[in-house]
């Protein structure tokens, strides 16, 4: 047992103070079809707005996503310039939001968790707000860290004023040994996105539990000091502290999240005496 755990037990300090949630495919299942449609919209944007050859777009998008975590970050990295708002309204604005339904079970779970709760999404603020609203979860979170939080307006103004494209040699994307051009977009899984999120939302990663469906985002989060929950699979791999098939399984996988209430109740029952609890967390 390390010093921090001993200190937390002795002082009845909860292990966590904040829960940080990705949105898409984390707070609703990937089987909703939203992600599939999002990929279609991205490919359509690449063909219609950026003039990328239709026959190559699927493979290119897969390589871009694999290398950068988001297609948008990758497209900007390899030299495409476009208006961020136009991209978001084309890619997210046309998603089938009607497939999302209010999730009363998740709402009850979230509201019963006595911690700060924040969204940490690469999506734009309109998409995050619409999705949370459709899921009936808008008032379950203290705040939202999204694309606009991490990418200030000035960057977008740049792309609006340029409006042209200057594309790098794309062969580096297909060659594992090549150095990739750096993206100007701040997003998960890059370290600067986590650093900005921690700073802007006053998050202590050592006392925060991070939920995401992307193994890459989870592993990057682990490297940044977060405790991690991979959502969408029960397979635990490197960097994954907990793995759950569905966000609905939080209570079964992490019953200790609710135990601080229980401990408080026990403490109160000892008429003024501070009850020293033996930790029951694994
Ligand atoms: Mg996600």
From TrEMBL:
It holds the Pfam family Hydrolase. SUPFAM superfamilies: HAD-like (SSF56784). NCBIfam families: HAD-SF-IA-v3, Pyr-5-nucltdase. This is Suppressor of disruption of TFIIS. The lineage of its organism: Eukaryota, Viridiplantae, Streptophyta, Embryophyta, Tracheophyta.
């Amino acid at each position: 047992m390390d010093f921090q755990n001993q200190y937390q037990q002795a002082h009845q300090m909860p292990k966590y103070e904040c829960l940080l949630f990705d949105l898409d495919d984390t707070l609703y299942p990937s089987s909703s079809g939203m992600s599939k449609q999002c990929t279609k919209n991205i490919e359509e944007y690449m063909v219609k707005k950026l003039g990328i050859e239709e026959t190559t777009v699927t493979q290119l998008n897969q390589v871009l996503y694999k290398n950068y975590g988001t297609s948008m970050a990758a497209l900007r990295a390899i030299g495409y310039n476009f208006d961020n708002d136009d991209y978001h309204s084309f890619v997210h604005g046309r998603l089938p939001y009607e497939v999302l339904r209010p999730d009363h079970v998740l709402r009850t779970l979230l509201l019963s968790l006595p911690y700060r709760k924040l969204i940490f999404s690469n999506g734009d603020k309109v998409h995050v707000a619409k999705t949370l609203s459709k899921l009936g979860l808008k008032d379950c979170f203290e705040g939202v860290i999204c694309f606009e939080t991490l990418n200030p307006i000035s960057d977008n103004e740049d792309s609006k004023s340029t409006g042209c494209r200057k594309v790098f040699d794309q062969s580096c994307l297909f060659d594992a040994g090549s150095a990739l051009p750096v993206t100007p977009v701040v997003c998960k899984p890059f370290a600067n996105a986590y650093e900005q999120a921690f700073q802007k939302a006053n998050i202590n990663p050592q006392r925060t539990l991070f939920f995401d469906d992307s193994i890459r985002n989870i592993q990057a989060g682990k490297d940044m000091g977060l405790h991690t929950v991979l959502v969408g699979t029960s397979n635990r791999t490197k960097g994954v502290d907990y793995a759950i098939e569905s966000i609905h399984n939080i209570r079964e996988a992490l019953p200790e999240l609710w135990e601080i209430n229980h401990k408080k109740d026990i403490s109160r029952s000892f008429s003024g005496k501070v009850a020293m609890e033996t930790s029951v967390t694994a």
